[in-house]
Amino acid sequence: MQRSAERIATISAHLNPSAYQMEDGVGLSQANCRAKGGSPGFKVAILGAAGGIGQPLAMLMKMNPLVSVLHLYDVANTPGVTADISHMDTGAVVRGFLGPQQLEDALTGMDLVIIPAGVPRKPGMTRDDLFNINAGIVKTLCEGIAKCCPKAIVNIISNPVNSTVPIAAEVFKMAGTFDPRRLLGVTMLDVVRANTFVAEVLGLDPREVDVPVVGGHAGVTILPLLSQIKPPCSFTPAETEYLTSRIQNGGTEVVEAKAGAGSATLSMAYAAVKFADACLHGLRGDASIVECAFVSSQACVTELPFFASRVRLGRNGVEEIYPLGPLNEYERSGLEKAKKELATSIHKGVTFVNK
Ligand SMILES: NC(=O)c1ccc[n+]([C@@H]2O[C@H](COP(=O)([O-])OP(=O)(O)OC[C@H]3O[C@@H](n4cnc5c(N)ncnc54)[C@H](O)[C@@H]3O)[C@@H](O)[C@H]2O)c1
């Protein structure tokens, strides 16, 4: 009878985070953390989990066999999303956390934290127009990370990524926890779009195409390196112009099609999971995991402190940052435009925290 009551209490704890048994106030108890699927996996938190990106992202992460514990945090609607996702018969244990008073419980013990919290664009807006709201949200969430899981890998999706990643870095520096290897801005959607659009032009399966996209994640800072595509291919000047412009404006294409109902959510959730999965494979110690990401490149790629480029992921996050490689004249001129805008966005993020 006693045992049956304990079992039921453990199950209902999924939906009622305040009922969790905490060990010494840090970390969740062994029983609550075990993965039903068997093998021990990674603990992942999604902050902004009830949003347009957060919900499909939570669903896809629940399907990831590398995840043993999935924490869903938001300031609204997490109980419903958690109840829904928790019925999926996959291995990860899911728990919901609602509101700032539960942020620390949501973050404690996490290996990977993914942040899609914040407002999305409406038609006519640039990503920078989101700065005033999203900067504060990212700052607060990163203060929580510095306190509760300073060793976690952090994937930042909230826009403007070109500024929110520098904001996160400044918060971590102030807390004394900054490790440039563990902070990554998610630019994977630009790569996903580039692979798709290039495959359309070449008449290939997008899964066979690999387009490096460097720079940042907004307008002209999104710089596809069409000269370095695998498999090797060439384009006419008109094709290069069309592809570059479509990749740079892919987000706006979706914002306009959604006509006020938000920005890319489903393709973004797909891209975020592709990227998070690469981070988890790196954490597991798999070899040769290379993806593009906006990272603290310590001025080793360009003179800028942050830049998106190909990076190798490993047990500590970013293990190696690759140089840009040979650029053609079109790309060199694009790089100059990208650097100019990036410098302003990075400065804006740094100043926001230090004001
Ligand atoms: N990096 C990229 O490629 C990319 C692509 C698309 C969208 N985005 C960005 O992702 C963000 C989210 O987009 P969306 O469409 O999911 O928006 P959304 O409005 O549908 O969802 C955002 C969620 O964040 C939550 N939230 C707000 N403040 C919060 C806080 N302080 N703590 C925790 N959660 C909070 C909201 O309650 C909501 O559930 C936007 O900033 C958008 O611009 C990035």
Explain the overall architecture.
This protein has 355 residues and is of the alpha/beta class. It has two domains: 2-185, NAD(P)-binding Rossmann-like Domain (Rossmann fold); 188-354, L-2-Hydroxyisocaproate Dehydrogenase, Chain A, domain 2. The chain is 43% helix and 17% strand. It has twelve helices and eleven strands. The strands form two sheets. The chain has a nine-stranded mixed beta sheet, sandwiched between helices. A two-stranded antiparallel ribbon has the order 7-8. Helix 6 packs parallel to helix 7 (161-175) and helix 8 (188-202) runs antiparallel to helix 9 (237-248). It is globular and about 75 Å long. Bound molecules: nicotinamide-adenine-dinucleotide. Nicotinamide-adenine-dinucleotide binds next to helix 6. Substrate binds at residues 121, 127, 159, 193. Belongs to the LDH/MDH superfamily. MDH type 1 family. It catalyses: (S)-malate + NAD(+) = oxaloacetate + NADH + H(+).
N-to-C SSE series? HHEHEHEHEHEHEHEEHHHEEEH
Q: What is the makeup of the main sheet? A: 9 strands, mixed
CATH architecture assignment of the largest domain = 3-Layer(aba) Sandwich
Q: What is the fourth-level CATH superfamily of the largest domain?
A: NAD(P)-binding Rossmann-like Domain
Instruction: Give the number of helices.
Output: 12
Bin the strand percentage: 15-25%
Domain unit count: 2
Low-pLDDT stretches: 19-38
The CATH class of the largest domain is: Alpha Beta
Binding site for substrate: 121, 127, 159, 193
Family: Belongs to the LDH/MDH superfamily. MDH type 1 family.
Domain Lactate/malate dehydrogenase N-terminal: 43-185
Pfam families: Ldh_1_C (PF02866), Ldh_1_N (PF00056)
